[in-house]
Amino acid sequence: MSDQSSSPDFATLAVHAGERPDPATGAQNTPIYQTATFELPDTSGQAKQPSGQPGDYFYTREGNPTTHVFEEKLATLEGAEQAVASASGMGVISAALLTVLNPGDHLVCSDAIYPVSQDFITSELPRLGITVVMIDITDLDAVAGAIRPETGAILTEFLSNPTLDVADLDALAVIARKADARLIVDNTFATPYLLRPLDYGADLVLHSATKYLSGHGDAVAGIAAGSADLIAPIRRFIARYGSPISPFNAWLLIRGMKTLHLRMDRHCENALALSRYLDAHAAVRNVMYPGLPAHPGHDLCSRMTGERFGGMLAIELAGGEAACGRLAGELEYACRAVSLGDVSTLVLPWTGRNLVRVSVGIEEISDLISDFDQALGTNSDMA
Ligand SMILES: Cc1ncc(COP(=O)(O)O)c(C=O)c1O
After folding, report:
1. The pTM is what?
2. How far is the centre of ligand 1, averaged over its atoms, from the C-alpha of 380 (Å)?
3. Distance from residue 222's CA to the centre of ligand 1 (Å)
4. Alpha-carbon distance 45 to 39, whole Å?
5. Is the same domain home to 338 and 231?
């Protein structure tokens, strides 16, 4: 990892990075520049590519001062040269893959990632002449064996959705470099507070900002970070294909990220305690959480994240899929919902599998454990 000892602490950067008093009014908080267009600086009608400096903006699809602050904050936290925001996590995943890869290229992709990312990769990329192999990303020999001369990228989530597989980013970066391919890491579950993939040799880091970066479940957004050379074409793609973030959502992201470190500490603490409780419960057959020593990625994750394992876990119940649905229905505080990374606990029974994904919120842990206790206890065949 890079030496961060001389730079400000993550907490300080989360609050201050990218922010400055508004140059027009002195407003201490970044205003929402809720405007589609900007007065052009002269009569030539020639709009420049915005540099992010006041006066350089001309149309919000291409760039906006509020969006720019969100991008600068995330770039700083990820240790990246630049970042670019989009309307959703899928917006940056599609933009990143379609700029890094060209027809004839090949993608090596983890087979355990978010199902909609998988759907995009297996449905859309082959249509455009890009071949794909889906692979167990924890099997490094299989990953190395899947590389072809035309492999342009390896894509993985650091902590996978929903099974919490842990990707060995150092080793994947070595394989990618040897193949002259890009390593692209979806860091949605860990956030830069737990781990900065670029420090491990990744070329691009992607987020569904809808999740922990926002933290409050009130905005759908995505962001990609990396070198200026890689971000520039993604920025052009997002403008051309028309998927920019709205200034209001960028503002919600700026506000959310100021407390990322505080929320993540609590998510990690609560998820570890809940996973230990669930692991000891007779109705629970298996707990997938890298904080538990029995998890296959425990040691790797410990080393990479400083023993912080995030707020996501998944459980299999002894009573099977029907019990999973009932558990989700019996919980009082947890909402049965897709998405994750919210301050509130969210649970999702995973269709077709004996699995409930739990996005552990920041509530008082004794209340969460009591809630799971009553929900697991209500149904005699849950066990
Ligand atoms: C790991 C991961 N990546 C990407 C996405 C897609 O993000 P969005 O829903 O913001 O488009 C999700 C959504 O759940 C996700 O969990």
Report:
1. 0.96
2. 35
3. 8
4. 10
5. no
Nearest partner of 112 among 175, 159, 182, 170, judged by Cα? 159
Tell me, yes or no, whether 162 lies in a domain. yes
Same domain, 119 and 222: yes
Statement to judge: residues 276 and 161 lie in one domain: no
- Per-residue pLDDT tens digits of the chain, which is 383 residues long: 445 457 899 999 999 999 999 998 999 999 999 999 999 877 776 656 666 565 689 999 999 999 999 999 999 999 999 999 999 999 999 999 999 999 999 999 999 999 999 999 999 999 999 999 999 999 999 999 999 999 999 999 999 999 999 999 999 999 999 999 999 999 999 999 999 999 999 999 999 999 999 999 999 999 999 999 999 999 999 999 999 999 999 999 999 999 999 999 999 999 999 999 999 999 999 999 999 999 999 999 999 999 999 999 999 999 999 999 999 999 999 999 999 999 999 999 998 899 999 999 999 999 999 999 999 996 555 55
Residue 338, domain extent: 260-378
272: domain CATH number is 3.90.1150.10
Q: Which residues line ligand 1 (CB under 6 A)?
A: 88-90, 114, 117, 157, 161, 186, 188, 208, 210, 220, 222, 339
Cis peptide before 162 (omega within 30 of 0): yes
Rounded to whole angstroms, how far apart are CA atoms 377 and 236? 54
Asked whether 353 and 343 are in contact (CB, 8 A), the reply is no
The residue whose CA has the least distance to atom 10 of ligand 1 is: 89
Q: How many domains does the chain have?
A: 2
